TrEMBL record:
It is an enzyme of class 6 (ligase). The active site is at residues 52, 131, 155. Keywords: ATP-binding, Ligase, Nucleotide-binding, Protein biosynthesis, Transferase. PANTHER family: GLUTAMYL-TRNA(GLN) AMIDOTRANSFERASE SUBUNIT A (PTHR11895:SF151), TRANSAMIDASE (PTHR11895). It catalyses: L-glutamyl-tRNA(Gln) + L-glutamine + ATP + H2O = L-glutaminyl-tRNA(Gln) + L-glutamate + ADP + phosphate + H(+). The keyword Transit peptide does not apply. Allows the formation of correctly charged Gln-tRNA(Gln) through the transamidation of misacylated Glu-tRNA(Gln) in organisms which lack glutaminyl-tRNA synthetase. The reaction takes place in the presence of glutamine and ATP through an activated gamma-phospho-Glu-tRNA(Gln). GO terms for biological process: translation. This is Glutamyl-tRNA(Gln) amidotransferase subunit A. It comes from the Bacteria. InterPro entries: Amidase (IPR000120), Amidase_CS (IPR020556), Amidase_dom (IPR023631), AS_sf (IPR036928), GatA (IPR004412). The lineage of its organism: Bacteria, Pseudomonadati, Pseudomonadota, Alphaproteobacteria, Acetobacterales. The keyword Lipid metabolism does not apply.
Length: 450
């Protein structure tokens, strides 16, 4: 009830939820109470969470932040949201996001931007990051105890950093993608966002596991991530990748990175300089591969199969009018880039080349992980910026993802840990990247940093 009341009080200002589900939440909470009374409480019984509105939820409107899906009420439940429900979690509502998860500041949502609950002294309204900005704001403002996010190129880690919370993108394949509205299928991963690293560990355990309905879901046992938080870092080798020292990085972020190194050393880790030489190709590769896959995935929104329809004089006209009216600017830009790089004549020069460089980026990580157990980097090159800043030029916005896209391209797990504040008092995050399916080391290192 306290969380339902907090959502009611704060959401009109922060716009963290597109849809709130207070009756459902209270009903689920009562069921959790009953289970507890019988001594049968599942792991998350009664824990109130926000569900990113990219997860299909049976009987509850799902928008993906896009007007083109309105009104879409899924007839089925995504695997991850279904697992959380089965574990007793209580859904407070569907969290706002960039349209189809394309963005880094939540301004591309068809349902209005989210406001970061953190405030700057000059009173400017700040973005919460994106695309899981509603999830981040809901957790940071104490509306929810945890949230689901999805991360294709940073959409869990960057909003976690901007909002002073923790968030992990697990290994590609750790969580099922079934029922998550697709953006770029070879990159999309679900993960938890919460106030602490340990809370993320608890949530991730319930979200993970093999699912025969997702052909890229991994047949791997789900470890006890929470126990891993207690392991410490004694004897671990932590790599510092030289290429992440980019020009123009604020001094406070450099300093926080150095603080992180010092904390890990003090706890007994060995710090090793490593090189990921293809890092500089991460952004260009990502902004070819992700739009290419998106242009294909978004072909299904044609006004016939789902959601909104604008009638036309014939079928092609109906498609065109529906897509022109239903998609926002950023989504249209991605579809155009994607269809361009996939078109005959350009495919070899762009898409195929990008896939080859993607393999080199993966090899960089594999070589580094021959020498070290985890990597430490900043999560983002800046703290949360003001609504309205960086918004005239899409490329400036894309630069925000410089530290997060390489791990997405390689499919390795990455976590953002709330590790400090900048001079303006805004939160900054450190990122811990681990080997494929070694989230346990990521949790162990992250626990020391928070
Ligand atoms: N900011 C990146 C993009 O706009 C990442 C988004 C995401 O991870 N979903 O594509």
């Amino acid at each position: 009830e306290a969380h339902v009341a907090a959502v009611e009080a704060l959401n009109p200002r922060l716009n963290a939820f597109i849809t709130t589900t207070p009756e459902l939440a209270l009903e689920q909470a009562r069921a959790a109470d009953d289970a507890r009374a019988k001594g049968e409480a599942p792991a998350l019984a009664g824990i109130p969470i926000a569900m990113k509105d990219l997860f299909c939820t049976e009987g509850v409107r799902t928008t993906a932040g896009s007007k083109i899906l309105e009104p879409f009420v899924p007839p089925y439940e995504s695997t991850v949201s279904g697992k959380l429900k089965a574990a007793g979690a209580v859904m407070l509502g569907k969290a706002n996001l960039d349209e189809f998860a394309m963005g880094s500041s939540n301004i591309t949502s068809g349902y209005g931007p989210v406001e970061n609950p953190w405030q700057r002294a000059d009173g400017a309204k700040l973005v919460p990051g994106g695309s899981s900005g509603g999830s981040a704001a809901a957790v940071a403002a104490r509306m929810a105890m945890g949230a689901t996010g999805t991360d294709t190129g940073g959409s869990i880690r960057q909003p976690a950093a901007f909002s002073g919370i923790a968030g992990i993108k697990p290994t590609y394949g750790r969580c099922s993608r079934f029922g998550i509205i697709a953006f770029a299928s070879s990159l999309d991963q679900a993960g938890p966002m919460a106030r602490t690293v340990e809370d993320c560990a608890i949530l991730l355990r319930e979200m993970s596991g093999f699912d025969p309905r997702d052909s890229t879901s991994a047949e791997r046992a789900v470890p006890d991530f929470r126990a891993a938080c207690e392991r410490g870092v004694k004897g671990l080798r932590i790599g510092i990748p030289a290429e992440y020292r980019v020009e123009g990085m604020p001094r406070e972020i450099e300093k926080l990175w150095q603080d992180g190194i010092d904390w890990l050393k003090r706890e007994g880790a060995e710090i090793v300089d490593v090189s990921l030489p293809h890092t500089k190709y991460g952004l260009p590769v990502y902004y070819i591969v992700a739009p290419a896959e998106a242009s294909s995935n978004l072909a299904r929104y044609d006004g016939v199969r789902f959601g909104a329809r604008v009638e036309g004089k014939d079928l092609i006209d109906l498609y065109e009018r529906t897509r022109a009216a239903g998609f926002g600017e950023e989504v249209k830009r991605r579809i155009m880039i994607g269809t361009y790089v996939l078109s005959a004549g350009y495919y070899d020069a762009y898409y195929l080349k990008a896939q080859k460089v993607r393999a080199l980026i993966l090899r960089d990580f594999q070589e580094a992980f021959g020498k070290v157990d985890a990597l430490l980097t900043p999560t983002a090159p800046s703290a949360a910026f003001a609504l309205g800043e960086k918004m005239d030029d899409p490329v400036t916005m894309y630069l925000n993802d410089v530290f997060t896209v390489p791990a997405s391209l390689a499919g390795v797990p990455g976590m953002s840990v709330p590790a400090g504040l900048d001079a303006a008092g805004l939160p900054l995050g450190l990122q811990v990247i681990g080997r494929h399916f070694d989230e346990e080391t990521v949790f162990a290192v992250s626990s020391v940093l928070e």
